[in-house]
Structure prediction request, 209 residues.
Amino acid sequence: MPFFNISDLIWDETIYPRSARKQQTIDAYGEALTAGATFPPIIIQPVVNYPAPNTPLSEILMLILDGIHRWSACKVLGWTEIEAVLWQEQPLDYATCKDDMLLESARRNISHGDRLSQTDKRQVARDIVFRDPNYRLSEEMLAGSLGVTRQTVNNWIRDIRARQKASRDSTIHRLNRLGWSQQKIAHVVDISQTRGLRNYRKCKFLHYR
Prediction:
C-alpha cells in the first residue's frame, strides 16, 4: 500500500459526514497506534478545482474521504506519513462531485469504526438534497448509502423537496405565461421535456397560447 505525506492531505468539513471530530476517538486511536496496533489505510480522493487559498484550480489536491480520526491521531503523534488508497484514481471536479464524495464518505462510516449517528445521517441527507434541486440523487440512492430506509430519507428531506417543487413550479408557470416554449422552460429549470410538460399541465392557471 502506498504512503502519503500527512501534511499533503486535506480534511474538508464540507464532505465530512459528522458534525465534528471526536477527541475521545482520536485519543484512543493514538494510544492504540503507540502500542503497535495497525489500522486499515485511509481513503483519499484526488480533486481539481478545489478552492484552496493561493492554489491554482488546476492543481491536484488530495481530500480525505474516510479516516479523519486515524489521520488526526497520526498528526498528534508527529507522524509524517500515513497509509492510504484512492477511492477513484482519476481526479474529480470538486465543484460537481462534492456531494458524491460526501455520500461515499458517509457510506464508509455506517458499518465500521466510529459509526455515524442517525443525526449525522439526517444532516448528510439534508445537505445533499438542499444542493440537489434537480433530483440528481434519488431517495433510494441516499437510503442505500446511509443504511436507512427510503421512508426515513423521505421523512428527513420532505420539507426541502416541497420548497424546491414549489419554487420550480412557480418558475414554470411564470415562464409559460411569458410565452416560453416547453423546451426552453425545461432547459431553464433543468428537467426533461416530458416532466416539464407534466408540470405545465399541473399549473392551475396555465395560459395556453
The beta strands are 3-5, 9-10, 42-48, 61-66, 81-86, 92-93. Helices lie at 23-34, 68-76, 94-107, 118-130, 139-146, 150-177, 182-188, 193-202. The first strand starts at residue 3 and ends at 5. The mean pLDDT is 88.
